[in-house]
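Internal tracking record. Fields below are filled automatically when a chain is submitted to the structure queue. Please do not edit lines marked as system-generated. If the sequence contains nonstandard residues, flag them in the REMARKS field before resubmitting.
Queue: standard
Priority: normal
Entity type: single polypeptide chain
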Amino acid sequence: MPLTREIPSQCRAIVEAIRKEVPRPDSLPTPCLPSDGLRLRFGGCAPMGFLPDAVNCVPWFEEDFEGDRFELAAIRSLATWWDEQVDAAAAVDAIWGPIEKRRGVDAASDAGA
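SYSTEM-GENERATED OUTPUT FOLLOWS
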């Protein structure tokens, strides 16, 4: 299943920070059901929640990060985009980039994932 839409351009700085500072997870996020609908989470966290300066696993406010690192509109834009996604593999690939194939074998399969 494809992405619901491309990552909004206004949150590119956050995506770049995630790519630079957060290793790609070994497993895919699983759907969980908060009170307002189905969401993909890594043990309760969204990708922004893994940034070193995040103080909340599912950031929604500027205060969910130490300092004034990201603008509120960018945080909300990425959080909203992530919560729209239903294809876990496509969402992870969109954030961290696709796993490169080597020797004709998928890197995740080669790693035993």
